[in-house]
Design goal:
9 strands; Rnh202_N; N-terminal domain of TfIIb; about 260 residues; nucleus; extended; 4-stranded antiparallel sheet; alpha+beta
Length: about 260
């Protein structure tokens, strides 16, 4: 397990690099390590109880997502050998991704330049967007086949229109876009949204929309609680009945 730069957040994330000893041609497989740490959770191991209820789940990740930001940074103006692209003082073990990246795969994001035995790559944004669009469409097919609510992610906001023939396909594509954009910078996510033909107002913050929704709900709840706690309740004072004697005294006091 190594620490690498997250392609979306630029911060540290954990990844598992596994070499296939049985098939050298396959090279190294890359997995994203996700940690689930819910409160009030323990593990029962034989006759003991482990209070640390964390669970780490490795899931496969396309190493091109990890390569993309380095290509954007180093190879926009000129072709650079892969060994010089994967250089990061903060995360030096990114160099190990060389074994997980095949030239045929790198060519999906960059133009290959050869000079003798030297192979260099220059970032090609059009290729990268075509690859991302294709990945979104392939993923949307899988999403659309899911049963029930699994195919309709609540992470994204969409307008429901009556008699919309391709509504399900659009929803599936938006879900696929959200999943893919979790591995992209915000700027690249916007470019991908434009390439997919999403309206301009759909481009912003589709990634993990549920987080924004949750924060909005929490803010509304806080405001609601503040209103209940701080807003004084105005009560109407009951009308006092004036007796005939009091009316006479008031009339005498007024001099009439």
């Amino acid at each position: 397990i190594v620490s690498l730069r997250n392609p979306a957040t630029k911060s540290e994330s954990k990844y598992l690099l596994q070499k296939d000893a049985g098939d050298a041609a396959r090279g190294t497989s890359v997995y994203e390590v996700n940690c689930f740490n819910e409160p009030h959770r323990s593990w029962f191991i034989n006759e003991t109880v482990c209070s640390n209820g964390k669970i780490f789940l490795p899931t496969p990740i396309d190493p091109l997502f990890l390569l993309l930001p380095y290509l954007e940074h180093h190879c926009t103006e000129r072709a650079v050998p892969l060994e010089q692209v994967l250089i990061d003082d903060e995360f030096p073990r990114v160099a190990e991704l060389v074994e997980a990246l095949k030239p045929s795969r790198i060519s999906l994001l960059a133009d290959e330049k050869r000079a003798g035995n030297i192979v260099a790559y220059r970032y090609n944004e059009s290729k990268a967007l075509s690859w991302l669009v294709s990945k979104c469409h392939r993923l949307s097919v899988v999403v659309s086949k899911q049963d029930g609510s699994a195919a309709r992610s609540k992470n994204f906001i969409k307008e429901e229109k009556e008699n919309e023939v391709d509504g399900d396909e659009t929803a599936a594509l938006q879900t696929a876009f959200g999943l893919v954009s979790d591995y992209l910078s915000l700027e690249m996510g916007k470019k991908l949204a434009n390439s997919l033909g999403f309206p301009e107002d759909d481009n912003v913050s589709k990634k993990r929309k549920s987080i924004a929704d949750l924060e909005s709900v929490q803010v509304k709840r806080i405001k609601k609680e503040e209103i209940h706690e701080t807003t004084p309740i105005k009560l109407q004072a009951p009308e006092k009945k004036v007796s005939a004697k009091a009316k006479a005294l008031a009339k005498a006091a007024s001099g009439s």
